[in-house]
Amino acid sequence: MQIAKFGVEDWLNVWENDAVYDIAGSSIASMTLEEIIDLSKITKEEFTNELFAKKMNYGWIEGSPEFKDEVCKLYKNIKPNQVLQTNGATGANFLAIFGLIEPNDHVISMYPTYQQLVDIPRALGANVDLWNIQEENEWLPSLDDLRKLIKPNTKMICINNANNPTGSLMDELYLKELVEIANSVGAYVLCDEVYKPFIKDINIPSIVDLYDKGIATNSLSKTYSVAGVRVGWVVANDEVSNIYRKIRDYTMICAGVFDDYLATLVLKNKEAILKRNEKIVLENLEIVKEWLKKEPLVSLKIPNNVSTSFIKINIPNPNDIEDMCIDLLKEKGVLLVPGNRFDMPGYARLGYCTHKETLEKGLAELSNYLRKYDK
Ligand SMILES: Cc1ncc(COP(=O)(O)O)c(C=O)c1O
User: How far is the CA of 92 from the centre of ligand 1 (A)?
Assistant: First the structure.
């Protein structure tokens, strides 16, 4: 199978460990196991007792009933049978596309976005039309463009809500219009919802609560701050879930007894964890806004409390962005993701939801570095 190199992952694989100030990641500041337990309604002793008593067999193949119940609570009307546990959202996206897409299918993918949503269908032989996001449209793609791209045989529309790297957000009205367009030809809508906002005032529905042919993927990596647990899930209607169930047996047996247990614990205690994370998002966004006022070479469409953002860096040649990011890392220890890894030279992904001191120092060092471009 021919498949393109995964731009962002390839960049992070090479450079992440060299960072002193990693402000490239899109997760909300990760937690230690101790922090998770402290935020949970369980003592360390109870946690270890429960864990030590567990048999390290395969456990529940599709995810434990407790895990599935917790996932169902995130949606309006989803039954446990419609939930399949996966190896992160990466595994969920792979399954969601691999299970439905065949050579010559027509697929429309939001672009740029998490590269899986574009390059897996391509690798499977689908004809993929790119549905471009537009900076002047708050980094959303235009629904009129979607109407032009859709065909009677469109099999799937792939979106990422909120979007990596920009943090742009499709609201309910927008999603309903999108569903209407998809439904006019019976296309599936796959929505990667790992950045779905959780802040009280922002109410964004899941695609599976809006559309029978909606497929939602998600995980504990981003808004729940536990990427290390490697647990995600895919939710779809019964028919599609059964297709995925069959294929899943070929790709994984289970996510692991420990991972399932910890993932369930996190979901059971999501109120406390999301409260912690809301504080980080809101406080760090203020830090970024203040920094932008003082940094003449950078501009940003402020994300709506989503944990990823895409800054525009005004360097003489936008195509130099990757070299600039390497130089910045070597000189100042600051890691960004250069925009060319998303096909957008001149920009960079700023993961502002890291630990506060890292963000503050990272932005200060970025500004120090950028002074070499002052005229
Ligand atoms: C949109 C999107 N989906 C999926 C993933 C991968 O998530 P996971 O760690 O759950 O595999 C990422 C990671 O950056 C992402 O940005």
Answer: 10
Q: Identify the residues whose C-beta falls under 6 Å from ligand 1.
A: 26, 88-90, 114, 160, 164, 192, 194, 219, 221, 227, 232
> Which residues neighbour 235 within 8 Å (Cβ) at sequence distance 6 or greater?
71, 75, 78, 82, 83, 84, 206, 208, 215, 216, 217, 218, 241
Ordered by where they begin, the domains of the chain are: 7-25+272-373 (3.90.1150.10), 56-268 (3.40.640.10)
Residue 187 sits at φ, ψ, to 5 deg, of: -80, 145
CA–CA distances in Å: residue 85 to residues 43, 213, 225: 26, 19, 18
- What pLDDT sits at residue 197? 86
Residue type for 38, please? D
List, for residues 187-228, the tens digit of each pLDDT value: 999 999 999 988 878 889 999 999 999 999 999 999 999 999
Q: Is 39 helix (H, G, I), strand (E, B) or coil?
A: helix
How far does the centroid of ligand 1 lie from the alpha carbon of residue 296, in Å?
31
**How far are the Cα atoms of 6, 90, 288, 322 from residue 313, in angstroms, in the given order?**
23, 29, 14, 12
How many CB atoms are located within 10 Å of the residue 123 CB? Answer: 17
Q: What is the pLDDT of residue 250?
A: 95
Hey, what amino acid is at 290?
E
Query: Are 96 and 207 in contact, with CB atoms under 8 Å apart?
Result: no
Encode pLDDT of 220-259 as tens digits: 999 999 999 999 999 999 999 999 999 999 999 999 999 9
Non-local (6+) Cβ contacts of 283 within 8 A are: 356
pLDDT of 375 = 79
The two structure tokens encoding residue 347: 């920009």
Which residue ranges of the chain lie beneath pLDDT 50? none
pLDDT of residue 291: 98
Atom of ligand 1 nearest to the CA of 227: 9
DSSP 107-163: EEEEESS-THHHHHHHHTT-EEEEEEEEGGGTTEEPHHHHHHH--TTEEEEEEESSP
How do strand 347-350 and strand 337-338 relate by DSSP bridges? Answer: antiparallel
Amino acid at 19: A
